[in-house]
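Run log, item B.
One chain of 615 residues. Sequence copied directly from the ordering sheet:
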Amino acid sequence: MENRKKNFFYYIRKIFQPFNTLRIIIINILFWGLLLLLLVSFFSAESVSLQGDHSAMVLDIEGTVVEELSGTTLDQAFRTVNGYVKSETLLWDILESIEYARTDSRINAIYLDLRYMESAGMAALTEIRNALVRFREEGKTIIAYSDYYDQLNYYLASAADEIYADPLGDFFIRGFSVYNWYYGEGLERLGIDVNYFHAGKYKSYGEVYTRSSMSDEAREANRKWSTDLWNHYVETVSAGRSMKPEKFNLFINDYVRLLNEAGGNSVRAALRASFLDGLMERSEIQDRMIDLCGYSLAYSSFNQIYFDELLTLKGDVFPADRDKVAVISASGTIYNGYEQPGNIGSETLTELIETVQFDNAYKALVLRIDSGGGSAFASEIVRRKLQQLRDAGIPVVISMGSVAASGGYWITTASDQIWAQPTTITGSIGVFSLMTTYQDPLQEYLGVNVDGLGTTWLAGSMRSDRKLDPRVGEIIQQSVDFIYRQFLGYVSLNRNMAIDDVDAVAQGRVWSGLQARELGLVDELGGLDQAVQSAAALAGLKDDEYSTEFIRQEIPLANQLLTAILENSALSKLTGKLISLWNPLFGNQVLKKLGDLEGLNDPSGVYALTELNFK
C-alpha cells in the first residue's frame, strides 16, 4: 500500500512538474522585464532638440533649491520618474542651464515658472538671480509667472522683464523672521535636566532647551544680521522693479489699506503698486510666450525646451587632458564618519578631497560650503585634510552658500581665500556641549530608581538616568573652553588677526556675509563662479587653460538597495511604534529636537553647530 501511495504522488509530481517549471520561468520573465523597464524609465532620456531660432528655456524650479541632492541616486531617481514633482532641484543645474541659454543664439527668452518652488537659501537665490541678470544683459527676455508669490520666489521674479500672476493668485511678502520653540519650561515640568555648556555669550543653540524665550544676546545678533539681509532684499528687488526702497517698505507698512482698496485681491494690490506687470490666466501667459518665441506643433504651445533637457544637449566641450579646478559641495550637518549626500561625513568628504590631492589633473579646489556645522572633531578632520592639500601646493578657495557657520566656518580656516554672498549667514565661532538627564521622571512616573557602584567617582557619571555631578559639569565646560580656544587659534592664523580681535567678533555670534567681509572673516563677496576664477588664478591658470569639474560622492547600487531594505525593515517599524508611544508625553516637536541631539556623534560631545529657524 505504501509503495502505491509513493507511486501515486510520484506521478502527480511528474504531471505538475512542467507547470511548476513554467511558473518559475514566467515569474522570472516578469521580474527581469519589470526591472529592465524600471531601469530604462529611470536612466534613459528622450531625444530633445531646440526648435527654430527663437525658443524659450523653461526654468521650472520645483521643491527646494539645494546645493546637493539628498539621499542616494536611487532616491533621486524616484523623485523624478514619470513626472512626479521633485522635492529638490539642484542649484548647479539651474545655474549651468541659464549660462548655456545665455550663450546659445537659438534661445531668446527664459520662461521662469515659479509655481512649484517651495524654499531656498538666500545665497542660493542670489546666485540664480545674478545669473538671470547676466542673461538679460545679452538682450534676451525673461518672463516670470506664478500662482503665488512669496518673498523667495518673488526675489527671482524681480530679475525678469515682465512678471505675471494668476488673477486669483496670491502675493504676500512678509519680511524675514527668526522664531523658535523654547522647551525650557516644559522640560523642567517633566523633570528633565538640561545641562548646557558653551563658549561664547552669543552661542545660542542650546538655549531653546533651557529658556522660555530668546536671550538678549541672541535677539541682538539675530536682529542685526536679519536686518542686513532684509535691507539687501529690499534694495535688490526695488532696483529690479525700478522703484525706490521707500515705496517697497510703504507697501508692506500700509498693506491692510492697500489690500482693502483692491477688494481683498492681493495680486491686484501688487499690480497697482507696480510689483506685477499684469494678471493672466494660463492660456493668456501661453499666448504671451507664443508672441515672443513662436508656435511649436510638438508642444502645442510656444517653442520651448526645459532647463534639465537643455543640459543634455550641452555635452563636454573640454579635452580630457585639460587642467581642472575641482569643485566639491559640502552641504548639511557635519557628522563624524561616513554620510550619504545631504549631510557631511568627515570621512566621506576627506575621501573626495583626496581625489583632488592624488590626481595631477586638478590644480585647485573650490569647496562650496552650505552648512550650519555639527561635530567639532569632524570639522577638524576635514580642516586637516584641506591643509594637507595646501601643503601639497594646491590652492583651496572657499565658496560660502546660504549658511557657512560654526563647524562650517571651522572648515574654512584651512583655505587660501574665502568668498561669500552678502546674504550668506556665517560666523557663529563658538562651541557647546549639551547633556540631558531624566532621573526624576523615571522615578516619579515609572517608579524606576537607579542604584549601583563604580570603582571611581567618575565611573557611571555620564549616565543620562543619573543627575549630573557638578564636578563632571566642570570637566565638560573645560573641554568646551579648550575646543573654543582651538577654534579661535585657527581663525587667528588663517585671517591674520590677533586672538583677542577674533574673540571679539566670535563669541558664537552669527553675521551676514556683508558684515563678515567688513570684520575680516571673509575675503570677497561673490558666488561660485568668482571663487572658481580666483582659485584658477591662484593656481596660475589662464581663463582658457582649465575646465571646472564637480566631484561628487558615488554610492554603489548594492549599498543603496541594502539601505532601502534596512530603512523599511521590521526594526525600523518597531522604532517608529516606540516613538509614537512617547508622543503623548513629549509632543512631536520636543521629541524631534531631542532626537536630533541623539543623532550628533562627536567623540567628545562638543559641537560647533548653528540652527536658525529663519524665514
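Observations after the first pass:
- The longest helix spans residues 2-43.
- The two ends are 84 Å apart (CA to CA).
Flagged for discussion on Thursday.
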